[in-house]
Sequence to fold (721 residues):
Amino acid sequence: MATQDFPGNINKKQEDLEPNKEESSGEFMTTNQGVKVNDDTNSLKVGDRGPSLLEDFILREKITHFDHERIPERVVHARGAAAHGYFQVYESMAKYTKAKFLQDPNVQTPVFVRFSTVAGSRGSTDLARDVRGFAVKFYTEEGNFDLVGNNMPVFFIQDAIKFPDLIHAVKPEPHNEIPQAATAHDTFWDFISLSPESMHMIMWAMSDRAIPRSLRMMEGFGVHTFRFVNEEGVSYFVKFHWKPLLGVHSVAWDEAQKISGKDPDFHRRDLFEAIENGHFPEFEFGVQIVPKDDEHKYDFDLLDPTKIIPEEIVPVVRIGKMVLNKNPDNFFAETEQVAFHPGHIVPGIDFTNDPLLQGRLFSYTDTQLIRLGGPNFHEIPINRPVVPIHNNQRDGYMRQEINVGKSSYHPNSTGGGCPFQAKMSEGGFTSYPERVDAHKVRGRSKSFLDFFSQAKLFFNSQSEYEQQHIIRALRFELGKVTIPAIRERMVGLLSHVNSRLAAEVAAGLGVDIDEPLAPVNHMFGADANTVEFQPVEKQAPIDNAPSLSMANTIKNTIKSRKIAVLIADGVDEAAVAKVKAELAQAEAQAVLIGPRNGSIVTSTNTNIQADMSLLTTASVLFDAVYIPGGDEHVNALIADPDAVHFVNEAYSHCKPIAANGEGITFLQATYVGTKLGSNSPEATLGLVLSENANSTFIQQFIDAIAQHRFWDREKRDKVPS
Ligand code: HDE
Fold:
């Protein structure tokens, strides 16, 4: 049965949430017992100036509820933002899986997606250098399926037992709780420098993938190898992917740090506004499928979560699309209380023995018990499936369900044997009967010992500017480390990835690399330093994987991009109006920024409204800048250091800048002016100049914005910003 169509934003999950919604408009205020309140601002006292009375049940109820408003934040992924939407498969995947939501292209399956950072607290900045969580709850007709992934396809460690150590190392240091939401400190790099298995993930985390432009512009990955199982019981290995239709884009690191001050809610706001404006984020669902018999075909272990299957070896097939088209109504009720779990699977999907995944299967229920306060968190509206629940689990804190009848056990005759168990043919979940025949060992497979070949592959596959960004990120991060031995160990590890990378990072740190340290491997228990458990040096089967470089992403749309238009009194209104309209046609948004809020008088003596003032915004919050013409307006901008800074900063972050008419005179008065006459091709990349704001000029500007950034400008000297 197909869920209801989306126009109107209603799907089965939305209908399910409806009875729990509360809307106060036109209603009297009541206590939690439903008693109408006649004074919510004064407590009950003995005389006007006397003490408050204990009998004031209205005061007590209000204060008590307030006192208990907070719940523990997530131990990781505390900061997040979420949205509702739906998923639809393109064509039946019956050949590979019997999962019902992957059969019928006419079925829309409701989803709730939460994006997050990992290390920071609930109130930390969105723009931390960090992995992003990408957790999708599918409310399928067979129960909930949670795909709890990240925006990077590999992980730091190979075994769940190390997770508490990794997280203790990355979180603020315990003696002073510094730094917040940052990896650039001693304990994180100490741990990493002693954990060579992290090197592939470190390449990703130091790349621009760790500072996305938008949650709508990043990939998602299931990370582990999972299983598909079809109706005949045949199993395939599968890796899950999300591909954003807007491409994969990032900001500059300097920009990220500034956004963290100017608008720490940048990503959250971007997601919320995009959905409110009808620019629904869209992600295609991709799978890499490996037949069961090919398990040992590759030079890496499919169970090792520090490895990808390069897309160049097993292509990603796009099998469906997810559209996020509704913001939550209430952050706490939905985004905060949603409880994901990689163990929430449906028939047709199953686990593998990836030791990281196996540990996760324990952790997620356990963490909800403390975070949400008891075993009935599945009854919280956002968590409950759209299909009914029938079992003999009973009671516990905050139980909502009123189970009727006297039998709460199985087998029973008092309840007619109900609820019945379902055979596999009736949709009963049946674990894939994998044969496992081995000794119990506390150890790790030797097939997990290659730590460097895919780190190399990642670094080698990056464009020149991406490699430079990784080098600079490592210089920044390790430059904040205060213990020299940690920096030296890291340079030692980097030298196993790429000698130029190691040399350039070392040069930035003042580390002498004549004798880089051999990798120290403290990760394999008592056996760690035996010859057998030393890292294995291998060559990846391919030297370069273009799919790993963001330089090769989609660059054909400016949908939902934000363009700053600098205006002052005397601005050319016609130019502003034309550029604004044509950008809107291309589904981008022009924001008028004035020296002050309110009316700006144009060159033709009309009034236009500034959306923001230079005081309340900054170039780092925009994708591009446009400076229209107008004599008086340009003189005012030239005299305004904030306007000059705005443009210099946008240039420094390699953003497109367009100017026409006298707007060009303004550019000449900024630092960018020193580049205009330059005969270096890189220096003028992304600058779009024209006498008139005609359609050709605007189209050139649109094309430049679609390119996202002109990173090659960084090859030239940098503009101060
Ligand atoms: Fe998680 N992780 N994780 N993780 N994880 C949590 O569960 C854990 C890992 C991921 O938006 C926690 O409900 C262990 C990999 C996301 O609510 C906790 C290990 C991947 C989210 C937990 C990992 C993830 C979490 C904290 C190593 C990508 C946020 C709060 C074995 C594939 C979900 C919670 C949301 C959250 C444990 C590693 C993704 C403590 C033990 C690998 C997206 O249960």
About this structure: Residues 1-8 have pLDDT under 50 and may be disordered. The chain has three domains: 80-379, 453-551, 555-715. The chain has 19 helices and 18 strands. Residues 453-551 form a domain with the Hemocyanin, N-terminal domain fold (CATH 1.20.1370.20).
